[in-house]
Design brief:
Structural class: alpha/beta
Radius of gyration: 22 Å
Number of strands: 12
Helix content: 40-55%
Largest sheet: 7 strands, mixed
CATH topology of the largest domain: Spore Coat Polysaccharide Biosynthesis Protein SpsA, Chain A
CATH superfamily of the largest domain: Spore Coat Polysaccharide Biosynthesis Protein SpsA, Chain A
Number of domains: 2
CATH architecture of the largest domain: Alpha-Beta Complex
Order of helices and strands: EEHEHEHEHEEHEEHEHHEEHHHH
Number of helices: 12
Distance between the termini: 53 Å
Length: about 375
């Protein structure tokens, strides 16, 4: 190929592009994701306990509250704590479920909202009310469709509040069920956690998930809550953390006892709708985060097309050699990270998941361009 008088070997050019994409992938895996893979929690010289306010927001979630709220209420925690359920304009049996549980659990507080907040779509208003009602400085957030993996969830999450820490990021997993869809949902959730937890360990925290998230009440009011985000329906978790978290005030907790578990979607269509809604907030992240996440996604999306082109137009042996180097790195880091987040059963599917990422981006990238819907969640 002749390009402005320069003769270029097309096959070599394609292979060089493939090698460069692979290099980007290796940099991300070893510079960022290895931090979670080899992460070791600091040894607690003594177990600290401090008062905690657990906040759950719910709208028409009577069934989920009946199923999951007891798991939050029976936590083994020696220090004062409360559980606040913000019942946001529910028309189902939610208030009766809460009232029944209050008979057995005196630390359960019920905040019932009967009017919609004008001009504040989504979950931010009920969550703000819950935070305002909280008696304690340490806030621990989860959703009505989540249940702690153990009775020590509160204990393990609040242990991360050492000097200077104001934000604690946890892992919100999904229940393990039979079927391919369950594995796809859990892998996507795992990979998202691998990214935001690793970036936090690298001093670049950019999001957390409302299923398992903690921060200080003082920090919330210091930045005037969600006031700068009220025009966006979503983002009460990831956009808020993107705004307030930094390398000095953020910690992560991945202890098996500190994980929360949710029911996964049962149909592919419902999962697509859920993820499309979540991804509409990514456009509001800080520029450095959008660049880093975008570059990684770009390299992931084009990796297999570039591999196929390098095999066809260059030397398949060199192409597969580069592929092997990357896959060895992926297997090392992902297998260790799977174990850290209690998802080891996904290890045998890693090559399939890796190839699946190309199709995943085809399906979900358009969501980044969509306008967020003004729904509660």
């Amino acid at each position: 190929m002749d390009f402005f008088g320069w003769k270029i070997d097309l096959g070599l050019l394609i292979f060089s592009v493939f090698a460069f994409i692979t290099l980007i992938q290796l940099v991300y895996h070893w510079l960022f994701f290895s931090r979670l893979a080899f992460f070791k929690s600091a040894d607690q010289s003594r177990s600290q306990t401090q008062p905690v306010s657990v906040i759950v927001c719910a709208r028409d979630e009577a069934a989920n509250l009946a199923t999951n709220l007891p798991g939050i209420l029976v936590q083994t925690y020696p220090t004062t704590h409360e559980v606040i359920v913000v019942n946001d304009n529910s028309v189902d049996e939610s208030k009766y479920v809460i009232a029944e549980l209050q008979k057995s659990f005196k630390n359960l507080q019920h905040v019932e909202l009967k009017h919609e907040a004008k001009g504040i779509p989504g979950k931010k208003y009920p969550l703000s009310i819950g935070i305002k009602e909280a008696k304690h400085e340490v806030l621990l957030l989860t959703d009505s469709d989540c249940v702690p993996a153990s009775e020590f969830w509160i204990q393990k999450m609040q242990e991360a509040y050492t000097n200077g820490v104001e934000v604690v990021l946890g892992y919100g997993a999904y229940h393990k069920k039979p079927g391919l869809l369950n594995k796809l949902i859990r892998f996507e959730t795992f990979q998202s956690a691998l990214q935001f937890l690793s970036f936090a360990l690298a001093g670049l925290p950019y999001m957390g998930v409302g299923r398992n998230l903690s921060y200080k009440k003082g920090l919330f009011f210091q930045v005037k809550g969600f006031s700068s985000l009220n025009h966006i329906p979503s983002g009460d978790d990831d956009l808020f953390i993107n705004k307030v978290a930094n390398k000095k005030n953020t910690a992560i907790v991945i202890h098996p006892d500190a994980i929360t578990l949710s029911e996964p979607k049962k149909t592919f269509g419902d999962w697509i709708k859920q993820k499309n809604r979540h991804y509409t907030t990514a456009k509001y992240y800080k520029r450095v985060h959008k660049f880093l996440l975008g570059l990684f996604s770009f390299s992931q999306f084009f990796f297999y097309p570039a591999l196929a082109a390098a095999i066809i137009f260059y030397d398949w042996r060199f192409a597969l050699g580069v592929f092997a180097i990357r896959m060895i790195s992926v297997y090392i880091i992902y297998s260790k990270s799977f174990k850290k987040l209690n998802e080891s059963d996904l290890s045998g599917w890693l090559l399939f998941f890796d190839i699946w990422q190309f199709f995943y981006y085809l399906i979900f990238t358009p969501a980044l361009l969509k306008k967020p819907k003004r729904t509660w969640h």
